[in-house]
């Protein structure tokens, strides 16, 4: 059987795994990348590409977002440019006064951590984005919000890693692991036996069954998000539009479940992005339905009708396609990133919920540092995989 040796074996290659592979290879590590299918087979192939600071709460997640946003221009340039990376700014929409008041507190917190954000209403708002409904109370404008094509980004990272010497193995999931005490000795695959210094588990919503193969609990749960794509994107300025109400839906799963409002119970939060090719992407819902990736009639109808309320000209748009992806959700609202204390040469990078594209550069940089035996630039103790421990007896890990 062939033996594949590496400093770092990356298991799971969406945007997060690809970024870790790229950063590690760039730092001179030998890297072997494995995916059960191929890059973008998972969440990174069915999502938006917002690089968004306004949807984060101040604290570590905001600090990581600021650092990650700052890495994009350099990473994109190193990878040859393009990738539909744009810093077009964003508008956080306030439908009425109550929403505006609540969003005002959030905006103040964002300002405290250095985010440029100003409230626009009336003529100022119409000048900023003429397509918005005149019924809206106003919107917070953040000029440094950005977007990228998530699929192009993921493949560019893979190409970048390969250019630095990484080897890739698609349709090659691990078949089993040899553990020697608290260390992974080897990983068996159809391509050969992998012997690596470190193993990174970065399999997004499939991280839990992967972790269970070595008894480590990585409790990432799929949270389905539906999207509808239309034409008419060319009629917009290209700014990312998001409702301030989106924050509650994203960050408070219990409030969504308990809501009397059927739209909120769908986990609906308005977002609208425009692609470089003149299309819109209407988002989005949040639902815990296991690995069911279907678009639903209720979801599609809500996405379209709610978007038209805020952007009336969409009533004349042509629906091009509908699809759904999975946000890798962790119950405490934080991704799982760092070194395992249970299996000493295991690293984990998973569970980034709706922020995996945005946070992929900084996650890649921190995992590459850990794989080199260095401390990462941020204290990420609160993201440690050890907060979940080992797989409990009889626990479901599918
Ligand atoms: C509707 C929607 C909109 C979103 N919008 C945004 C946005 O605007 N901005 C943003 O930052 N994020 C957004 N997200 C979130 C983003 O898509 C995810 O956070 C991100 O794609 C997660 O990347 P990942 O690499 O962790 O996982 P994935 O992309 O799912 O990659 C995991 C990989 O692991 C592989 N795999 C699975 N099991 C195994 C195994 N046993 N062995 C080896 N490989 C395996 C899979 O094939 C897959 O390729 C959105 C998500 C959704 C659903």
Descriptive labels:
globular; alpha/beta; 18 strands; FAD/NAD(P)-binding domain; binds flavin-adenine dinucleotide; 2 domains; 398 residues; D-Amino Acid Oxidase, Chain A, domain 2; 24% strand; eight-stranded mixed β-sheet
Question: Hey, roughly how much beta strand do the residues contain?
Answer: 15-25%
Ligand kinds: flavin-adenine dinucleotide
- The structural class is alpha/beta
Tell me the count of domains: 2
CATH superfamily of the largest domain: FAD/NAD(P)-binding domain
Shape: globular
Q: Total number of helical segments? A: 11
Can you describe this structure?
By secondary structure, this protein is α/β, with parallel strands linked by helices. 29% of the residues lie in helices and 24% in strands. The protein has eleven helices and 18 strands. The strands form three sheets. Strands 1, 2, 8, 9, 10, 11, 17 and 18 form an eight-stranded mixed β-sheet that branches. It has an eight-stranded mixed β-sheet with strand order 5-6-4-13-14-15-12-16. The chain starts with a strand and ends in a 27-residue tail after the last helix. The chain binds flavin-adenine dinucleotide. Residues 11-17, 34-37, 39, 41-44, 46-50, 173-174, 202-206, 210, 225, 227, 283-284, 325-328, 350, 352, 354-358 line the site of flavin-adenine dinucleotide.
């Amino acid at each position: 059987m062939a033996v594949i040796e590496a400093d770092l074996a990356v298991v799971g290659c969406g945007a997060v795994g690809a970024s870790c592979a790229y950063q590690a290879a760039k730092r001179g590590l030998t890297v072997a990348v494995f995916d059960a299918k191929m890059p973008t087979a998972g969440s990174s192939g069915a999502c938006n590409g917002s690089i968004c600071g306004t949807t984060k709460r101040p604290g570590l997640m905001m600090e990581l977002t600021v650092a990650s946003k700052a890495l994009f221009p350099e990473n994109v340039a190193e990878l040859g440019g393009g990738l539909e990376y744009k810093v077009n700014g964003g508008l956080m929409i306030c439908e009425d006064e109550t929403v505006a008041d609540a969003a005002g507190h959030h905006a103040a917190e964002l300002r405290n951590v250095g985010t440029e954000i100003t409230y626009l209403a009336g003529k100022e708002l119409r000048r900023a984005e003429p397509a918005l409904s005149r019924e809206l109370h106003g919107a917070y404008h953040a000029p440094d919000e950005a977007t990228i094509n998530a699929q192009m980004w993921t493949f560019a990272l893979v190409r970048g890693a390969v250019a630095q010497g990484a080897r890739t193995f698609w349709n090659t999931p691990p078949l089993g692991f040899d553990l020697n005490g608290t260390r992974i000795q080897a990983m068996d695959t159809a391509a050969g036996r992998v012997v690596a210094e470190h193993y990174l588990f970065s399999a997004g919503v499939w991280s839990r069954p992967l972790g269970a193969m070595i008894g480590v609990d990585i409790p990432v749960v799929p949270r389905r998000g539906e999207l509808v794509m239309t034409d008419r994107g060319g009629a917009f300025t290209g700014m990312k539009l998001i409702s301030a109400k989106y924050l509650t839906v994203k960050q408070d799963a219990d409030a969504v479940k308990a809501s009397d409002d059927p739209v909120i119970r769908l986990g609906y939060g308005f977002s609208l992005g425009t692609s470089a090719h003149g299309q819109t992407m209407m988002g989005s819902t949040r639902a815990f339905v296991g690995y069911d990736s279907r678009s639903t009639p209720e979801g599609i109808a809500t996405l379209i009708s709610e978007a038209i309320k805020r952007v009336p000209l969409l009533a004349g748009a042509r629906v091009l396609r509908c699809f759904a992806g999975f946000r890798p959700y962790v119950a405490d609202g934080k991704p799982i990133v760092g070194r395992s204390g249970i299996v000493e040469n295991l690293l984990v990078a998973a569970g980034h919920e709706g922020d995996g594209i945005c946070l992929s550069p900084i996650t890649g940089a921190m995992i590459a540092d850990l794989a080199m035996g260095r401390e990462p630039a941020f204290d990420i103790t609160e993201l440690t995989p050890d907060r979940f421990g080992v797989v409990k007896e009889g626990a479901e890990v599918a």
